[in-house]
Structures are given as structure tokens and as C-alpha cells.
Amino acid sequence: MILGNYIAGINLYLENQHRFNIDILHVKIKEIFLLLLQSKKAPEVSTLLRNLFAERTNTFKAIVESHLYNDISIDDLAILSNMSVSTFKRKFRLIYKDTPAHYILSKRLKRAEGLLSASELSMNEISDEIGFKTAHQFSKKFKERYGLTPTKFRLNQIGKKLTPIGR
After folding, report:
1. For residues 141 and 126, what is the distance between their CA atoms, to the nearest angstrom?
2. Which of 62, 81, 98, 153 could cysteine-pair with 103, CB 3.0–4.6 Å?
3. pLDDT per position as a tens digit, 38-84
4. In degrees, to the nearest 5, what angle opens at C-alpha 118 toward C-alphas 114 and 119?
């Protein structure tokens, strides 16, 4: 019932936007948070709010995501995050539910798959684009994951595009 009254109050403001001001919006946002924190789901709401407003988590994720396709080491990512390597790895696993090396490799190879299917970039260009030191290293990791060299994968993709429908 309390939540219903809250929604009715919000609807009143939305229907009368000429009365709407930023101070009322702030009060209504605080009010919904307080109501949710008093609900049966209070622990989950509290965790959600902590994660939502945790600047370090957002900064951490931004650092990781912005360097996914760079030739950068885990040690360097830890330094950029202002953490020791062990702390970085623990936090990474907590946030991404994976090891840094496995997650980064998976993201790079997934992007390589897209580039091989949709572009005419050379293996060296793709290797550089996704953050591998050499095309050989890229080719080796790609083959381990997909069972095909990048070149054979690309040829298979081209073959699929050329095969008429119904055959």
C-alpha cells in the first residue's frame, strides 16, 4: 500500500508538470530509496545501491574496459587501478566472475571473430587491433579456441555468405 501511495504521488507530479521542480524530484528519489530499504528485499536493495554508487567499481570497470584491446599486462592494469596485482585480481574476479587473463582473451577473440567475418583487415591488422603482440600469437590463441586458424575461419565465413539459401 505504501508503494502504491508513492506511485500515486509520482503520477500526480507527472500529470502536473508545471508544479514539478528539481527539489521535489530529489525528495521523491530519497523517498523511494527509503521505502525500498524498508521492504523485504532490503539487503538486495542495499547491495544494489552500494554497487550503483561505488565510484571505485565504476572507475575499475572503466579502466578494464578501456584497455581490453590494448597490448597491456595485468600488472599495468593493476597499476592504473592503483592496486597491487593480487588485489586487482581479487577485485576482477569479484566483479567479472572470471580471471583477468581468461576474460580479456575471450573478449579479444570474440572481437577478432567479428573482424574476420565483417572486414578485410589482414591478420597483422586484426592482431594489432585486438591487442596481441604478434599475428603468430593471435593465430595460435584463435586456433586453440575455435579449432581453426583465423584464415580458415574467415574462408568458412565467406563460404557461408556465398552458399545459396536452401542448399
Report:
1. 13
2. 98
3. 777 778 777 777 666 655 556 889 889 989 998 889 999 998 888 89
4. 110
